[in-house]
Amino acid sequence: MVSTTVAPVRRDREPPRPPPPAVVEAEAQWIFTDEELLQTPSILDGMSPEEERSHRRKGVNFILQVGMMLKLPQTTLSTAAVFFNRFLMRNSLKARAGYKPLHHYQIAGTALFLATKVEENCRKMKELVVACVRVALKDPNKLVDEQTKDFWKWRDTILYSEDILLESLCFDLSVEAPYKPMYEMLKYYNLEHNKRLRNAAWAFLSDSCLTQLCLLFTSRTIAAASLYAGCRMVEHELPSEDGKPWWEVQFVKLRDIRRACNLMADIYEETPPKDGEGSIYAGLRSPDDDISFSTPGSAHTPTNGPVAENGNGTGNGTGNGHAATKDVPMRDVGSGSEEGELEG
């Protein structure tokens, strides 16, 4: 039998409060169903769902690469990824008669520019443009200044596209990154100093940026799912309170946590492990008809897979090395043909 440690509740802190109704209502406008994600403007214009997801992933990779060059915090990169994904719910990436779409790199760069202002982590326009050019051309040492054509092309594109992005977002710039509620949950259960759990939860959030989780679930749900992933990895059991399971205490729906974890498992379970390391998502899958969902060692633990013991989530990356900003090679941002499209 797997031994677990039950995390005590921190009694010197106030119990969790439900999200304000205004925040819930605002966030609900950007939550979509699986069916709606298959009817985005790009897909309706003839792009395959797989190709659209690939463009989304490459766009977020671009954000992570540029953000790493500019030493931006992860919360800013997360906000930029949300802006990028929301933009593509209302705009197509596929050209048609009378319509020339923005390249996904251009959208990503503009989303990051807007996120730096929203999150008050501003960088000089020159620094942002130089980083965008270097990432787009896959040359981190390329000389870029005001005398180069690429500099002015990217600068003008970002400034022009900012208005388009703002209109597409309906000027709704209030985004709560899941990192803060996740850390509040860690503090509530007195787990903020558990490095392995904290890193695993952070890895889940970093990996989720490369997916469409932000369009399917609220930030609080994603935070709760990341906490569950960390607990599975380090074999911690979150306690119930007054007969209520931990997810109800945190005002999160059980079904949503299960779906979020299953989605992450879908993406990574078939990916070959890196250097023999296991994925932290290996034991997260829960059957759709499983009405229970708890951490290892409890009476309701799903018995459909072992907990990965070799995940190596780090503060800057991912549990299995797929989405860490420090591990994403420059060549993964895109292909040479895409750069040709951008220049055209």
TrEMBL record:
Report the domain of life of the source organism. Eukaryota
- Could you state one GO biological process linked to this protein? regulation of transcription by RNA polymerase II
Keyword NAD part of the UniProt annotation: no
The name this protein carries in UniProt is: RNA polymerase II holoenzyme cyclin-like subunit
Where does this protein come from, organism-wise? Polyplosphaeria fusca
Q: Which GO terms describe its molecular function?
A: cyclin-dependent protein serine/threonine kinase regulator activity
Transmembrane segments in this chain: where?
none
Region annotation Disordered: where it falls in the sequence: 1-22, 274-344
The record's family statement is: Belongs to the cyclin family. Cyclin C subfamily.
Chain ranges of the Cyclin-like domain = 61-167, 180-266
Q: Does the keyword section mention Signal?
A: no
Q: Which InterPro entries match?
A: Cyclin-like_dom (IPR013763), Cyclin-like_sf (IPR036915), Cyclin/Ssn8 (IPR043198), Cyclin_N (IPR006671)
Polar residues bias (residue ranges): 292-304
Tell me the SUPFAM superfamilies matching this sequence.
Answer: Cyclin-like
Q: Which UniProt keywords apply?
A: Cyclin
